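This section describes the prediction task in plain terms. A model, or a person checking by hand, is given the sequence of a single protein chain and must write out its three-dimensional structure as a string of tokens. No templates, partner chains or ligands are provided. The sample shown here is typical of the held-out split.
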Amino acid sequence: MESHETSSKQIQRHGKARKERFLDFLRAAPSKDLWLQRFGVTVTAPHAFLRRVATVGYVPAAYARFFPLRAPAAFVRGVDWRALRARCKAWARRPTNAALLVWLAFVAAGVAFVFLLMTGALDSAVPDAARRRRWTEVANQVLNALFTVMCVYQHPRLCHHLALLLRWWRDDAAAAELRAVYCKNAAGTRRERLHVAVVLLLLHATCFAQYAYCALFWAFSSDTRPDWAVNFCMAFGLAAPVAAALYM
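The expected answer:
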């Protein structure tokens, strides 16, 4: 009987000791240096660690029983500015890319000029309100022409893609071309033809909204132009391509 009581007390003490060790383990703060050494990273000064390229590899075989899961490789890489400049120069040497850069520069200058006029930053340079309205109209007309030129340039390509969409089931090459343009990572999705059709519809609507916006600016003067129509065409022309980009 006494031996049975003694063994039960020993079991209780052993269980209590295990519980205390487990609680001490949970309360203990992990050592960052220990973890770095476990994964094969030499602990050095912070700045030296940031300067070098450190690779955290897989767990060695000696620690496989302690770390059954493999850690992903992590890299600290520097930017090769020379290679980046070379790639940018090669990209800008293409005629279409150079024209796009010029177009973006004119658009940025026009938007900045209109913003300065609307916020009153140029009131000292152009004190006359009538002249400010005239300059605002000129800048808006220039921006309108720039966006219309871009739509006229892109719309034939969209019409070609619409023709390819109509030949979706009969021509695998047409379907592959549309997937590469309008599907993420050129991967097919469920109901991918409907997916491409929605994106094309939104992009066509963007072009037609810009044409209507251009017609309002060319058919009416700044005093007789209906503001609601201008605001609607502008809002729709901005929302449609954003929705198409998000849907893609």
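For orientation: The radius of gyration is 33 Å.
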